[in-house]
Amino acid sequence: MITPAFLTLPERSTKPRTVGLTHVLDKGLTVESARSALVAAAPHIDVWKFGWGTAYLDVGLPEKLELLRAHGVLSCLGGTLLEISWAQGKAQDCLDWAAAVGFDSVEVSRGVAPMSLDDKHHLLRLASQNFVVLSEVGSKDPDQALTAEQWTREVAQDLAAGARWVITEGRESGTVGIYREDGSIREEVVTAAVRGGGVDKIMFEAPRKDQQAWLIRAFGADVNLANIPAEEVVALETLRLGLRADTFDPSRLWQPA
Amino acid sequence: MITPAFLTLPERSTKPRTVGLTHVLDKGLTVESARSALVAAAPHIDVWKFGWGTAYLDVGLPEKLELLRAHGVLSCLGGTLLEISWAQGKAQDCLDWAAAVGFDSVEVSRGVAPMSLDDKHHLLRLASQNFVVLSEVGSKDPDQALTAEQWTREVAQDLAAGARWVITEGRESGTVGIYREDGSIREEVVTAAVRGGGVDKIMFEAPRKDQQAWLIRAFGADVNLANIPAEEVVALETLRLGLRADTFDPSRLWQPA
Amino acid sequence: MITPAFLTLPERSTKPRTVGLTHVLDKGLTVESARSALVAAAPHIDVWKFGWGTAYLDVGLPEKLELLRAHGVLSCLGGTLLEISWAQGKAQDCLDWAAAVGFDSVEVSRGVAPMSLDDKHHLLRLASQNFVVLSEVGSKDPDQALTAEQWTREVAQDLAAGARWVITEGRESGTVGIYREDGSIREEVVTAAVRGGGVDKIMFEAPRKDQQAWLIRAFGADVNLANIPAEEVVALETLRLGLRADTFDPSRLWQPA
Questions:
Q1: CB atoms within 10 A of CB C144
Q2: Which domain holds residue B222?
Q3: Could you tell me the CATH number of the domain that includes residue B204?
């Protein structure tokens, strides 16, 4: 292959990354799809989340976890499964199973179950004994929106309790949490979340292209982005690098000498 | 694989199912995609419909039909192809071809062609000589909506004429038949269809997650759901089992002793 | 396989086509997905565009280009990459790389960079020395819409400058160029574009089914359609042939003798 190198592009972090992470949402991919997505784009994938409770039913789980290890991608259990387990008094069983199966990471959230902040931080500390913890802030229910102050405080507290990164809720649809129902961005919520821990500690769930482009324009190529479908990782990478109309940078225009 | 078993989940039927069926819509999948979808999710797939006229062009048809047989999934010819054949005076040719190729089942509908109810029931009886028949009720044209009484009557008559199940129209888009143009549910139509044959005899076309979740909340984990994309079968199964926020069951909360 | 032949269908061109082309948009497919899409549908695929700047990052590029050659499909570099290269003073480097890697075709557009019509035609003539050129008309920015007269003139001038076909902008989303923001068709723009070169020289970007169906009803089975996802090519072919409700032709009704 003749690797192209004729363009001036923004700086991008490389793996293992601490900033500029891409976090994939697996909604139940087949092993074959996971394998070919990793062959095509592993250098651009940092975290692979088994969305909500899909891991509980995924017959390809062992093979996928092995593929992820081989490609240097952090495997992460979805937060909803841990919430449901917690609600049934089975949080420890869930964590034990995740460890036995070989997950690197778990998401700790309180978007579904009636969990207090104290409960969440207890669970977060428990999980952080054996896993990289990604916490999540924001409800899946548009009627339970947090105030800006609550966003800032919960992000800060989650990090203090042991979260490596904090994910801001957007769901697979991109219509709650930091987004309005039409998918547009609640800028004051984004600002409040960033205030809680710094932009490098936030992973923004951003399933839609317009949301990804907005965040890249606001925070640069190395913003952390989450809930990306596996088959859209290369397209996202072009957005990060200004190789798509939505993030084209007119300041890089060539000027005759 | 360490199969997880720490959660209390709703009862689910198993194959071969008479209720709780999942009916997949194949819009022209490659053989490889079909194969890996079946490896990943065959225990959750009961019927596989080759949508509208795709079977007529599908070069992978023999391989797919063999895969479906091997995985215990009923293969079904799309109703639009039979309607077009009927409109051209070729219904018998279509059925003969479907039998020769090896279809188990055909859909009998009148959503496109100008077919009377009598014509439909004649075709249904003809088809039921050699196939499991899934009939469909509801027009693809939002301007030709049936009344509630018509829904009830047509469902009942289709079952009397030999249909094993009756599919309620929703299209791939989920915007006609039992749905409004915005995808929300016309509850009175759902009720009318159920009145015609009982909920176990109805398969609801439900391509959208919110529609699936509504029907599962209304009728339980074992509602029959149709027009599911192959790559979303595992996600649907998590919805049926309450492993996703949309169908989380707060009544299953653990209480300290 | 028992190839079905019982229906009367509209005439369709065959490869290599000069009309009725289907142009696929590759947004970063894996090699495996490209391979299986070509096995399933190569007779229906004429052009394969590596969308915007994805080719710059596509590690599977050499394998894909070889597959496309083997299946008789024209490989095409996305116009946005050439625009960005031009904006950085690297248009020649981009074309040299595309030739070295083995592209058959390049798209020449001015939807992103501040390129005058003269600049575009200069670039078009440069590119046409070594490539089949597909030019594109229409901005990606809804606020920069061309008048009908500008559409007609730019189409005619692009053809005169060496474009083999002219693509009308619609983006991946189908919401700009010849479409309104809600995806509906600006008929006066379609008419103006056709006036510039004749319908056989226009490729309409038509990512949505309703847009495809409209154009097929307006111009027939052999209208040129662009930006089709690889996995929807068979579905599009059923639309072209009247094998789906949206393009069902009631004039083909059988009449008893």
A1: 10
A2: 22-246
A3: 3.20.20.70
